[in-house]
Fold these 4 entries.
Entry 1:
Amino acid sequence: MYMLSRIVCIVFVLAVGAFAQTVRPPRLALFFKEEWKHLPPGGGDPAHPLEHPVTVGVNANPDLDLRLYGPSSKDIQLTGTGEENDPMHLWTGLCTTNCGAALRDKNNYVDLTGLARIRWVTKVSGFHKVRPIVKLADGTLLVGDHTDGSSTDWNETEFSVADVRWLRINPEKLLPEGNFVEKPDLSKVDEVGFADLMPASGHGPGGWSDLARIEVYGKPVKRAGAEKTQ
């Protein structure tokens, strides 16, 4: 009887341990989503009326600010018809150097530790790829080794931030620097966005990146002195 009781206890302990190992924390809630404003034709180039220079106000989410990176980042265009096969998106085709853009929540940093993830809709041409960039609370800008982009069609993908390795990147030149950063502090991230680390080829196939919808899943961390956006 004593031996049977011991066996039962051992089985119970093993079962509890196995259950504890399989229990995972819940997935994190949506921190922000951006799908870009639907602007009518009549942009800066009469030959390409759907294209609009990316300036303040092209993002549809009023709680976000858009930041541009790279020497030719002001050449990033907002374009698209808003239809499923041509959603509103940022297009890097006119960038003559590396370029990128990031979004900043006005009221909160975001904690991208744990099960934080990014989901976005992208399309590319040539050898171009879309990479994540993050700006930390101390001003450090990082670029990740994760890449996305299908030249066939729009592609919705999701990845865990914990799987990404990061390099420091110069915010003016948007060029990576040094070796991979060991265990960067992603508990208070100021901005999240994308970078294209190749010069583009202009209109037509050859080389460019598109970023349509972007979603960031993480924990909000209140900014000091931030007030709720009306």
Entry 2:
Amino acid sequence: MNKLTFDKILVVDDNPPMRKALVETLKHLQYDAIEAGNGIEALEKIERLQSDHSGRESSNIVLIMSDLMMPVMDGRELLIELKKRNIGLQFVMLSGYLTNNALDDLKEKGLSGWLQKPADIDQISNLLHKILK
């Protein structure tokens, strides 16, 4: 499987141990991962990296893996805000609470994929390979 060497995955989760575990899993899978604690922080990181005029390819975020339920700005709100701003990134939602209706709604808003929490390394690897191939 081809791994990304210059592109980043942004992990967004308000639970620090869960967020750190996912970042470490992605690094183990040879992906470059950065993190944010909520949707607002994620938008700030995306904007900061997009406005980086150094031309470094290593500043490109290509995929967001976000928890659905978070304070400040949740995953659904983040997905909607990205679409409003025409920021075209792949988006994977992580949740233990996704219903079929919620999933259909998120897909209409541009969701690339989803994982039920807790997801294991094989599930994460398979989904990322499918989305980023």
Entry 3:
Amino acid sequence: MSTARQELLKILARQSFRLGDFKLSSGASSDYYIDCRTTTLDARGAQLTGEVFLDATREQGWEPDAIGGLTMGADPVVVSVAVTSGKIQGFLVRKAEKQHGTGQRIEGFQKKGAKVVIVDDVCTTGSSTVQAIEAARAFGFEVVGVMSLVERQDANGRPNVEKAAAPANFISIFTATDVRKQHLDTSE
């Protein structure tokens, strides 16, 4: 594991991982919660997020014109990768079209036929990621890859995203198990 990736995992475990009783957006209950925004909006966490996502994009052989995802979890990831790369553009997907102005669902980079990577901070059921994939394709983007910072390893999350993403690959930088283990190792 690269040094940047190790450092990012430590920050996630320290700042984003919580044990307790939580209700997830899916309605399910969990004994832990991972709020990646406390890491992706942290100055050092943002730097590392950009670097690690960019490295993963290169390792996959993806050469996207842009990177984007559903607002709000994807927002800091998108900005971090765009800034770190200096050339990959960013876009955000609204949950619904605006009811005023130009009525857009895609904000930022907009070039039909462009190769894009869809990102998310946490993948539980995959719902947010699937919405972003569908909106990107409906706009006219070619989805070449899908990435999540943390995959919660929900029984349906990965299959839902893989089905929606096909033929593009879905990868996660970390699993919830990785983050939990790092959290417990540093808490002792």
Entry 4:
Amino acid sequence: MKKSSAIIMAVTVGVVVCVVTCLLTIVIFFDQRGGGNDSLSLKEFSELGKVIDQYYLYDYDIDEVQTAGLKAMVASLDDPYTVYYTKEEYEAFNQSSAGEYEGLGMMISLDKDTGGAVIVKFFDGSSALEEGVMVGDTIISVDGLDVREKTLEEISTLCLGEGGTFVTLGVKRGDEEYTFELERRAITVDMLTYEVMDDNIGYIHILQFGGNATVLFAKAMGEFADLGVAGVVIDLRDNPGGYLHVVVEMLDMVLPEGIIVYTEDKYGNRETEFSDEANIDMSFTMLVNGNTASASEIFAGAMQDYDYCEVVGTTTYGKGVVQAVLPMEETGGGVKITTSEYFTPDGRSINGNGIEPDFYLEYDDSGQDNQLDKAIEVLQKSIEQQ
């Protein structure tokens, strides 16, 4: 056999094997869903692999083919919250959830109206903040790659990397576009900050329900109690959510005995999370906005249902479904998959609806935080009525 023929045969076999491996999951999935004669079999995928290998004009990366197949399978579910992660994306997700990573030190969120990745916050040590990137900027490119159709996870992964390396970030600000050369740095994020403000009012800003949020929440409430703080403003603005068990742990500290949240899967199975009778006797108000999502809405909805606080701000995002994050051993990646819908203690469905504030107030960007001022005003009236 000629050397060239052997190479062609080896490539053909390799492509077919990889394509089959990539798409085997799809076949198994449809088999488990009860697919019958109308379901595709391995034969069709194998045939397609041979056609691509024999006739396709251009070179291609088989790893990219595999990844595209897995991502396409998940994307076909038409669920914006179900995502397949490559190995790099999965590692980035775990790092950001833990609160320690090497990157640009900024939090991004999906704009509900435009679908763009918008910068909503900077962390201490952020090179992006130092170089002039601003809250409200929409990320349009990373190292020259157009990312306007990329997921938040894909964009985050591109921004992460070894400390001391640089990345070129393109953003859109209004009608103008800007480019910044930014250094990746080691970033440590406290998922919660707190302080005592004027008039003995406590303030807690929960960035995300993960990392050290539970520990810091308990610490804050303990210090507030020792100081005799009369009431607390809890700020959930721009909080994208986090882990269900974390928000349950935090609500268990605050609420009286009863239901915190319950979830239902597609089979009607219900799982209910309860709080015990130990609770914190203190007045609260809460701040929310359109980027308050998922676990944050569980928190706000439960507090609202128990009449433990009044909510100030704008209607929340409306993400009332729960995802499980599962590793994919074969690829080293993972999948975040929607498994159930959650309901507030009173049975309210948040999905597509959001939490309606008791006091609707748009943010005034003139320099004074009018929403926080209103939350303090509402809290002081609540304290006076006790």
